[in-house]
Amino acid sequence: MSDAPVRYVVLSHSHADHIGGAKLWPEAGTQTIAHRQFVEEQRYLTELEPYFWGRNRTLFPWMPEGPSNIPLLQYGGVQPDLLVAEGDSYAFTVGDVEFVAMAAAGAEGADNMVLWLPGERVLLTGDFFGPQFPQFPNVFTMRGEKVRKPMEYVQSLDRLLALEIDTVVPSHLNPTQGEAEVRAGITRIRDAVQYVHDQTVAGMNAGRSVYELMCEISLPPELDLPQNHGKVDWAVKSIWEYYATWFHFDSTTELYPVPARDVYADLGALAGEEALLTLAQGYLDDAQPVKALHVLEILLADKPTSMGALKARESALTLLLEAARAGARNDYEIYWLQARIDDTRLRLNGAGNP
Q1: Which residues, 6+ apart, have CB-to-CB distance to 271 below 8 Å?
Q2: Domain total in the chain
Q3: Is 168:176 a contact under the CB 8 Å cutoff?
Q4: Half-sphere exposure of 248 (CA within 13 A, CB side)
Q5: In what residue span(s) does the Metallo-beta-lactamase domain sit (predicted)?
Q6: 327: DSSP letter
C-alpha cells in the first residue's frame, strides 16, 4: 500500500459492507465523492438500522448480535465532499491515471456509483450489477429497503454500453475480462430486466393478477442469467407493486389493519387438528408445499405446539429448500428457508420436551 496522500475516496453506494471503513481513510485534503442520493439513502438506513439488522441477521446469522458501539465502526455519519447527480459524472486524475466517477442508479439502490478508468478501459462497479457479473439483479430486495426503479436501471446499463469496457471489477467476486464478454453480459442484463418489466406491464394491462404473473413470466433461453441474487418471479412482484402500489384491488380486507392471521386460530379450532393435518399432508403428497404451509399456519395459530403440524411444516420447508437448491439457487431464498427450518426444529424440541 502506497504511503502517498489519499486524495479521493469514491463511495459506490451506502450499504454498510461498502462504506464501513470510509471514515478511516480521509485526511487533510481528501475529497469524498458520492452519488447525490447517497445522503438520503444513508439517512433512512441509519434511522431503520435496528429494523434492518434483525432482518439481515435472520438471513445472515454470522452477523454480530447488534451494531457496533465503537464510533468509527458505527454505520452512518459519512459526509461526502462532492455529490454527483444521477446521469452525471466527475472526472479527476491521480498521477497519470484518469478516473471518471459516474452516478448510475443500479441493482443495489438509487445511489450507485461506478468508477471508470478510460485509459485502462476498466470499470470498478461496486454493486452496480450486484455481487457478481453477469446475473439477474435484485429489482427491490426481500431484505427490505426503498424501491429500486427498473427502467432507471435499464437507462444506466445503456450508459455503460456506450463505453468500451474491457474489464469489469465488482466489489465481491472475480473480474470479467474481454470487451466482447463484458458487452454481452451487460446487454443480457439490460434485455432481461427490460423483458421482465415489459411482460409484467403487459400482464397488468391484460388484467392478470400479480401471482398469476409470478407463475407465468420467465426468461427466454437467450436471456437466461444466474438468479442467485435477484429472482425473476420476485422482480415481477416488485415491478407490479412498484406501479400498482400496496392495494391489489383484490380484497376489501386489504384496506384494514385486520390480517387474515387474526382469524386463523378460530378457523383452526373450527376445522380441527386432524382434518387440517390430513389436508396439509395431501398437499405435501401432491408436491404443493406452499399450500401445505398455508394450512399449517392456520393449524399452528390454534395449536402452536402441535407435533404433527411442526413436523409437516419442517417437511414443507425442506421440500422448498431442496427445490431452491436444485433450481435458481437464490441465496436469499435458501437462507430464509434454512432459518425457518432451524426455527421449526427448535419448536419441535420445545414441543417434545415441555
Answers
A1: 298, 299
A2: 2
A3: yes
A4: 13
A5: 3-172
A6: T
Same domain (yes/no): 84, 169: yes
Cα of 256 vs its chain's centroid, Å: 28
End residue of a domain, out of 188, 216, 240 = 188
Q: For cell 388484467, name the residue.
A: 207
Per DSSP, 34 falls in state: E
Query: Same domain, yes or no, for 21 and 134?
Result: yes
Do the strands 31-35 and 8-10 form a parallel or antiparallel pair, or are they unpaired? parallel
Domain termination site, one of 153, 188, 223: 188
As a whole number of angstroms, the distance between CA 25 and CA 276 comes to 60
* Rounded (10°) CA dihedral 22, 65, 297, 341: 100
Q: Residue 306's domain spans which residues?
A: 257-352
Q: 55 and 173 share a domain?
A: yes
Chain segment 149-207, per-residue pLDDT in tens:
999 999 999 999 999 999 999 988 899 999 999 999 999 999 999 999 999 999 999 99
Low-confidence residues of the chain, pLDDT below 70? 1, 351-354
Judgement on whether residues 159 and 67 belong to the same structural domain of the protein: yes
Please tell me the predicted confidence (pLDDT) of residue 354: 39
Pair 265, 180 in one domain: no
The whole-number pLDDT of residue 30 equals 95
pTM: 0.93
Q: What was the pLDDT predicted at 47?
A: 96
